[in-house]
């Protein structure tokens, strides 16, 4: 439906977008995810039509819209700051983009939209009489009221507290699916991107680093940046010593090394939830591949799980692991003794070293 072709943008000499290409399918929810300064807001502003690219083009259902001003695109936009007219009621704010409709139809549509966002009885209030979450619902109703072809969301929830935010994430997703509206949302919050989007596009320094479903990105990060930015990942420098065998510190581990030649260096990634802990005095029976000794350095309580920092002499590394805290929210005493860690081969990701590190090596 929307095709973004080789978009570049510089501010003065500084390149901010370095060749962005992306196709968005009808009804799809895309999240642009990346750290501050990676260019995601600039890309969204180019989609809105309030910024123009230096090179590249945008097509909407085959039609080139690159030179169209924002008003002609008629996309629905919600910004981080609620951007409502403070002296207009919620209903008047929603009616703002409906000037073309006859009065009766306009009132009907406003009532429908306010009901859709759960504010059917709040239309008379001005923004200062509404909570932050309610104001953002009004902004959403206003953006959706003219039935736009594309909904653009720029960090719409980042000014809200965690609880309101979680509720609205689910609600926006429900609405988006109910209306089938094609949506592009900018966020720097990986949880938000993973939980809401059909496809997450990870941006880094003005480029698309990787894109895929939330599950693909989490299960198969392709670069160190994505591995570190989407979820938590232990990263260990390693060297391929034979097919499917790597050396980390003083120890050798099994993992899939298909993409690497023997002798090459790489990073081994392992999610904290994939680390299996056992007590060393009663080791489990069975295969002992990828089993190393470790000791607990510290534990951080996070409610349903504790994050354990473990030191492993043979790997010459410190690893993070998750421990489910259970109903009594306590760690068993044996975790403070000698431990064995199983690092399952299928959970070990092999990642290329970043360019700069490779040169130094
Ligand atoms: N109008 C502008 N003039 C000059 N530089 C700009 C302008 N807008 C953005 N930049 C610069 O471009 C880079 C990318 O900004 P952008 O807002 O797109 O990043 P972002 O990924 O959305 O970050 P954030 O999450 O902090 O908004 C930044 O270095 C920023 O300082």
From TrEMBL:
Q: Which Gene3D superfamilies does the UniProt entry name for this protein?
A: 2.40.50.100, P-loop containing nucleotide triphosphate hydrolases (3.40.50.300)
This one is known as ATP-binding cassette domain-containing protein
Q: What is the species of this protein?
A: Curvibacter cyanobacteriorum
| Molecular-function annotations in GO | ATP binding
* ABC transporter domain ranges (all copies): 2-230
Q: Which Pfam families match?
A: ABC_tran (PF00005)
Q: Which PANTHER family match?
A: SPERMIDINE/PUTRESCINE IMPORT ATP-BINDING PROTEIN POTA (PTHR42781), SPERMIDINE_PUTRESCINE IMPORT ATP-BINDING PROTEIN POTA (PTHR42781:SF4)
> Taxonomically, which superkingdom?
Bacteria
For this UniProt record, give its keywords in alphabetical order, as a comma-separated list. ATP-binding, Cell membrane, Membrane, Nucleotide-binding, Transport
- SUPFAM superfamilies from the xrefs? MOP-like, P-loop containing nucleoside triphosphate hydrolases
